[in-house]
Design brief:
Length: 395
């Protein structure tokens, strides 16, 4: 093996380590997911020297960076003060906020249109005909989600009700105002909250108003903060965003910028992963008691090799009558409902466990992993392995 000396012309110079500041809070699940995606990128590429201080979503104190002389920034630029500070530092930066306070920067964010579309579809699949949105106008991403949600709901022939967070109100003032609003809404109704913390407040408002969740009000959050969702009463359904992929892509773009590549100031929108259904939306708001009972039966037996014939043994109807009632109430047949419930369960096992396909097939009562793969590809357009790889966050 050849040893290179310091003045050897063939000696490869080591690239200096890059110094990167992360202006990202650690107080919520979404931001922690971004940091996990950034960490995943760093582990598979040349390490960075990371600077991460205490920082809230709307914080403006960046004094911990006063003497910093770094190479790049990954930031959620949510206010004008942070935007001005980033401009003064004048280093390659990737924005992770929908606020777009510095339009000249490349930006990686969640796909709010798909999030709103999935929320509307989730409520419609439960037979709900009334819809509402609970947001915070101080965040542009909340406004965008509301706009998309309203457009989709109106396109489907329904009206929408709104509650807007008032920043000047105390916690109790807002909670009581929210309780009055919930009490006046038509029932049953599905409410999309702009994120899980707002959804948690809604659950408390429903308790104050004496409104039953999910029977009268179904509540869906965004971000799937596992701790918050499972501490709620009842447990909170939520849309799981692909924060790992978002953080990973932002880190990849910054690495290219620090290497001298020019990146266009466009927005990369990362679609969500799934709707994680918990008790807060576990309702079938249909007038047909047979369909309601059948859907409940399907959910309770989703881990089994379930057939329509099994449902018919529990529901005293003919196959033709059951499918007619399903189409009238939910727009799909009983068989399609079984496939949808089982495939969504399979998606969760693919992304939330490291089980082999054979183990998952056994848990879901498929005769063979190969048969499970064919059924899943027909439903999702990808093989189980490809779906797991796509949503691993490191692609």
């Amino acid at each position: 093996m050849r040893n290179f000396t310091a003045d050897d012309p063939h000696r490869q110079e080591e690239k200096p380590q890059k110094h990167v500041a992360l202006l990202i809070e650690t107080s919520n699940e979404y931001a922690r997911g971004l940091l996990a995606g950034i960490k995943s990128y760093i582990r598979t590429h040349r390490p960075w020297s990371i600077y991460l201080g205490e920082h809230s979503r709307l914080g403006t104190d960046l004094s911990w960076l006063n003497d910093w002389r770094g190479d790049g920034i990954l930031a959620r630029i949510e206010n004008k003060e942070i935007a001005e500070y980033v401009r003064l530092l004048n280093v390659p930066t990737v924005d992770l906020s929908a606020s777009r306070l510095i339009p000249a920067l490349p930006c990686v964010e969640t796909d709010d249109e798909t999030i709103a579309d999935w929320a509307a579809e989730h409520f419609a699949g439960r037979g709900l005909r009334h819809y509402a949105y609970c947001g915070d106008p101080s965040f542009p991403w909340s406004v965008q989600r509301e706009r998309h949600f309203e457009r989709i709901v109106r396109r489907n022939g329904h009206t929408i009700h709104r509650f807007q967070h008032e920043s000047k109100s105390t916690v109790m003032e807002e909670r009581m105002a929210m309780a009055r609003w919930v009490g006046q809404l038509p029932k049953p109704i599905g409410i999309m909250a702009c994120y899980d913390i707002m959804a948690h407040s809604l659950l408390e408002a429903c308790r104050i108003a004496g409104v039953a969740v999910p029977d009268q009000v179904a509540i869906l959050g965004v971000d799937n903060d596992d701790l918050l969702c499972n501490l709620s009463s009842p447990p909170l359904s939520s849309i799981r965003t692909d924060t790992m992929k978002t953080g990973y892509m932002a880190a990849s773009l910054l690495d290219r910028m620090m290497a001298g590549e020019r990146i266009d100031p466009q927005v990369w929108s990362i679609p969500p992963l799934e709707v994680v259904t918990r008790l807060s939306t576990d309702v079938v708001a249909v007038d047909d008691p047979y369909v309601s009972a059948a859907v409940q039966f399907i959910r309770e037996h989703a881990y089994e090799d379930l057939k329509v014939e099994d449902v018919l043994r529990a529901i005293p109807l003919s196959r033709r009558s059951l499918d007619h009632r399903f189409r009238q109430a939910l727009g799909r047949t009983a068989h399609e409902e079984i496939v949808q419930v089982r495939m969504k369960l399979l998606k969760r096992l693919l992304t939330e466990t490291d089980w082999t396909l054979s183990v998952i097939a056994e848990r879901l009562s498929f005769k063979h992993a190969e048969y499970m793969g064919v059924a899943f590809k027909k439903f999702a357009g990808l093989s189980p392995g490809a779906y797991r790889e796509k949503h691993s966050g490191t692609r």
